[in-house]
Specification:
The structure is a single chain. With about 110 residues, this protein is an all-alpha fold. This is Ribonuclease G. Keywords: Membrane, Transmembrane, Transmembrane helix. It comes from Oenococcus sicerae.
């Protein structure tokens, strides 16, 4: 059943939950367009489209009892996605620092012989 009521104010906002977890978000919200994320190369663009359109798609495809329920569910997805995004960035930074450390260690060991 699809929503026919007025749209919530947050329907056109970015969705971190859908951006970071497009596959799970799509299945959980019955928005199967997100499954295009499984197509290689295309998914590099599609993930941004999903992040931008997710709130609208979720509102259109689900029947929420009221706007507060919709906002609570989307806020939960967005918090989880944002935390995952921050952890992803932290992992990238740590990997870069580790590579720099290994390079410096290699230079020290090479020059000591």
């Amino acid at each position: 059943m699809e929503n026919q009521g007025t749209e919530p104010a947050l329907v056109d906002h970015w969705s971190w939950g859908a951006f970071m977890n497009a596959f799970n978000w799509g299945i959980g919200n019955r928005v199967y367009l997100t499954l295009w994320i499984l197509v290689p190369i295309f998914n590099l663009v599609w993930v941004f489209i999903v992040g931008a359109k997710a709130h609208r798609w979720a509102w259109e495809k689900n029947s929420y009892q009221n706007e507060a329920e919709y906002n609570a569910i989307m806020a939960t997805w967005d918090r989880a996605g944002f935390v995952q995004f921050i952890l992803f960035l932290a992992a990238i930074v740590l990997n870069i620092l580790f590579i720099i450390f290994l390079g410096a260690l290699g230079v020290v060991l090479f020059n000591s012989n």
